[in-house]
Write a structure and sequence with these properties.
Oligomer: single chain
Structural class: alpha/beta
CATH class of the largest domain: Alpha Beta
Order of helices and strands: HEHEHHEHEHEHHHEHHEHHHEHEHHHE
Strand content: 5-15%
Distance between the termini: 81 Å
CATH topology of the largest domain: Rossmann fold
Number of strands: 10
Strand order of the largest sheet: 2-3-4-1-5
Number of helices: 18
CATH architecture of the largest domain: 3-Layer(aba) Sandwich
Helix content: 40-55%
Shape: elongated
Length: 466
């Protein structure tokens, strides 16, 4: 064998063949005890009495915990789409090992799909076959040869097979995370940033004020940190012609992304208002005036019509939506809070490679030939990033695709499809019932340099706690 061939063989993903001639219950028990998707191992027992390639893909998705397609009214995926979903979720969620029971029933076509999955993901494939006679083993070997899985060493004997499977998973709890708990805030004063904290102190009880002040201080600290890293804050004002002369902030996309990141995890509009007022105070400490729409609560966007991607919400998305595109689309509805018509304009290239931000260029798509304006910027929360990574891989593996094409193809196209998407998600989506024809609040924000000396530097505003 030549050196290149030896290198290719050494780097090929491993396959383990376990031949259980007695069909011992201990082997099946050990395989099921081994499974733990969060730790990178799954076990699937293929649906009996069918040779469907799609069913095998759905069996693998079910083993990963993505089993909502079992509902009678759930959206169906085609065979190719289901296998693309299997590949994308494997790569995104870190599945490293897959145990497939009753491999002696698998057709060459099904084994071929498993071989392709193994090649594309590098997964360790463990095939367990029941071969009581030499003829049964010969038949399985021939099918493996047809699937280009020939020459696999076999492990025999119950004890040796159980040892090859490995020890049981130490954590096997599949229940959803506990419900989220957030201290609710009452209606907060609509005063400006300069008088917001004193007004809160006068109108709120001690506990509510402490929580509102915490949100305010967080907004202030976030603004100061972001401004310290931003080049635009040092942009010199235009040549002065009067004491009130100002100049506009240059990096509008950066400002929009900052405001989205500041509020994307906000559990309510009241929390958002407190964070924004704190950020305004932080900007003012650097001689910058951050203008926010007065009708903040009536608009849509981050922190107003959004739902934080908490562990429980992320678990719901992972289990209810096996199609990566659908999962990412619902996640986008939750963390952007924007209108579905705008999200429908999302291109594959709208998401950066690390899946940290979403940039929608509406102007160049609505006004063909006109130069684009600042894009609509949204921050992708950490728990939603694996969903977008999987969605990007899914679209790029789709035939005839390119980065300028839509990411959420066929997700928001018709009311019926949109209703089905929401039903499959099983989550309350505020933007679906909170219609806001105006642009999102953070895209309507403005910032100006003030021609005044910056106030004394403060790392933190003094609290007005009693």
């Amino acid at each position: 064998m030549t050196a290149p061939a030896q290198t290719a063989l050494a780097s090929a993903p491993p396959v383990t063949l376990l031949l259980d001639s007695s069909d011992d219950h201990a082997v099946h028990h050990a395989a099921h005890q081994r499974t733990h998707p969060s730790s990178g191992c799954i076990t699937t027992d293929p649906t009996p009495h069918t040779n469907s390639l799609a069913y095998l893909a759905l069996d693998l998705l079910r083993a990963m915990g993505r089993d909502s397609f079992a509902r009678p009214d759930a959206e169906r995926m085609s065979t190719d789409a289901a296998w693309r979903a299997v590949t994308c979720w494997t790569l995104t969620t870190g599945i490293k090992e897959a145990i497939v029971l009753r491999a002696h029933h698998l057709t060459p076509e099904r084994l071929g799909r498993l071989a392709t999955w193994r090649t594309e993901t590098g997964i360790h494939l463990i095939l367990i076959g029941h071969t009581p006679t030499p003829a049964d083993e010969q038949r399985l070997r021939e099918r493996l040869i047809n699937a280009e899985l020939a020459g696999l060493p076999a492990v025999r004997g119950t004890d040796a097979i159980v040892n090859a499977i490995g020890p049981p998973a130490t954590r096997r709890h599949h229940s959803p995370p506990p419900p989220d708990h957030v201290h609710p805030l009452p209606d907060l004063p609509r005063s400006d940033a300069a008088t917001f904290l004193p007004e809160c102190r006068r109108s709120l009880n001690k506990a509510d004020f402490a929580h509102a002040d915490g949100q305010y201080q967080a907004g202030y600290a976030a603004a100061r940190t972001w401004l310290a890293r931003s080049a635009s804050v040092s942009t010199p004002p235009a040549e002065n012609t009067g004491p009130d002369e100002t100049t506009a902030w240059q990096d509008m996309e950066g400002l929009r992304l900052f405001l989205a990141r500041l509020t994307v995890s906000s559990p309510s509009p009241q929390h958002t208002l407190a964070r924004v007022r704190g950020a305004q105070a932080g900007f003012l400490s650097r001689a910058l005036l951050l203008d926010i729409p007065d009708n903040l609560a009536e608009r849509g966007g981050p922190g107003i019509t959004t739902v934080p991607i908490t562990p429980r919400v992320a678990h719901t998305l992972a289990t209810h939506l096996p199609n990566p595109l659908r999962a990412a689309a619902v996640a986008a509805l939750l963390f952007t809070g924007t209108a579905p018509s705008l999200l429908a304009m999302t291109q594959i290239a709208s998401v950066d490679e690390n899946a940290t931000r979403l940039a929608i260029d509406r102007d160049s798509r609505v006004h063909i030939g006109m130069p684009p304006g600042p894009r609509h910027m949204y921050a992708i929360p950490p728990r939603a990033r694996p969903l977008f990574t999987a969605a990007l891989q899914f679209r790029r593996r789709t035939p005839r695709t390119a980065d300028h094409l839509g990411l959420f193809a066929n997700c928001f196209g018709t009311p019926d499809r949109f209703d089905c998407l929401i039903r499959d998600a099983g989550l309350d989506i505020p933007t679906a019932r909170h219609l806001h024809p105006e642009e999102d609040w953070h895209t309507a924000a403005h910032c100006r340099h003030l021609d005044i000396p910056a106030p004394a530097t403060l790392d933190r505003l003094p609290s007005t706690h009693p």
